[in-house]
Amino acid sequence: MNKNTPLNTGKHPDLKIEVAIIGAGTSGLYTAYRLVTDKKYKAREVQIFDMNHKLGGRLESVVMPGMNFWGELGGMRYLTSQEIVTTLIEGYPLTEEDPAKRIPVLKDRMTPVAFPMGDPSKLLMYLRKDRCKQDAWNVAQDEGKKLATRYYLNDDDDGFSSDQLFNKIIYEVLMADPWVAETYKDKIIKGDGIYDYSFKLTSEDWDVIKPRLVYNFPNSPYDQRKVNDLGFWNLIKDQISQEGYEFVANAGGYYSNTINWNSAEAFPYMVGDFSAGTIYKTIEEGYDSIAYAVANSYMDHEGACIWSENKLLTFTKEHSLTNTHKYQLTFLNLKTNTTWNVYANTLILAMPRKSLELLDQNNFFFNTNENSVLNTNIRSVIMEPAFKILMGFEYPWWKELQIDSGHSITDLPMRQCYYFGTDPETNNSMLLGSYGDMETETFWKALTDDQLLFEVRAAKSASLKELHQLDDVQATKLMVDELMTQLRELHGPDLTIPEPYVTYFKDWTDEPFGAGYHAWKAGYSVEKVMQYMRKPVADERIHIIGEAYSDQQGWVEGAFCEAEKMLQEHFGMDRPIWLSPTYYMGW
């Protein structure tokens, strides 16, 4: 797997091309790869520009000194049901009869491996200063009991785990709509036990349900409102009380899942990603390998170029240099701090919301007076903060609790920690302190701004010289001290947790990203916005793609699907032969 993709940090003043792709994240790279491998354009006619010095956008895999495996600072896994990302990584079946034999799509080989979620009978849940194992609810239910917690739940919600309670809420709301209850009665299932709810709804089913679903509860202030117009917090509180909301928000491990985002979008997200039976995988060579593999398949073509450390400032149609190219793009070359122009006929903005807002908002495309609909639709998503910190330890202290992988969950501001792995030769081990959801952002932000950084120290196979090369990505000492305090509280007083020897900190709220991932606001027609963003202005050849305006927000697959739909709708491209004709990519 080659991650030494050649990047051009220079400039080529007055470069003339057909398609300028802004953003070397997964959607931009995928678009370039598809356009040139399907021979829609020659590679020299399709160029990628990015202000970063690396590829992959919000994917970033790193190896820490003293360990020979990859840790993840950004996206870190995929679902096997996500067909584009799975096929690019694993190849596609030679025949339906023999799905194990697969034909590679990309030149670079990646090694798919299970993303272990750990053993819930060992992993911890620490809520309101009460510590238990994550399977404690199921253990109690198997014994015919209700697990006592420190939450004052409604009588008919008592004893449910957070996952079960989410399923119950979604079941109740779906079945309260007579049309949904009748149309999908075979796919919305109440099992024999009081805790058993399951859903066999496909993505297509959900896309029919989401715009139509009505909240049908006569004693509620939201009665007869479209679920699409309700915030998820509003709906959860209405269903199971504010105390119930506190429980599912805390025990779920992600405040971002329960913020006031679009309820209709939240439903399939919660039952699809956070339900039992979901199969996660990752890439042994680091999850950002998917970005480099796609980039390398594009770069294999003569004339291909990825211009890194070049920041788009603005673009205009009012230029006199050429009659053959519609748009003049002005870039700032970050190495020389000088500007240069590129001329293109099509512009693809493969960028999240914040990056779009950092472009010149007074140009013909973004100007509110000229195009207020675009302005409104850009703001149709919530920017979700994400801070991540990888911590290197000299031994896997969590194994004293028989924990080998997965994540523990708490209502402390750290929210959760992933036990990432251990180097078999050195015993050095990695933990991911994953935090910075909406509610805890300000807690950690106050600590990230401190001046004093964590001081690395030598460990087995990790020299000080090697470690000091990571000085500029260390978390602050204050943040590490606070995080260690919370780790010790989460794991309990009987476990001795040593200090780390190195950290690696990433704040995805920094520009140009502005967020780790995105969520749809309530009240927007997601179907219309998604289709609109792929070509916002009818007579302009300008397209917006990426995870932010997809129906799989927070996933690489969302970025791929938006790029693929744009290519088919607006470039007249055929579905690739490696993608199953029945795979549904959403609106």
Automatic annotation (TrEMBL):
UniProt-listed GO biological process terms: amino acid catabolic process
A molecular-function term among this protein's GO annotations: L-amino-acid oxidase activity
Pfam families in the cross-refs: NAD_binding_8 (PF13450)
Organism superkingdom: Bacteria
InterPro entries cross-referenced by the UniProt entry: FAD/NAD-bd_sf, Flavin_monoamine_oxidase
Stated name of the protein: Flavin containing amine oxidoreductase
Source organism: Chryseobacterium shigense
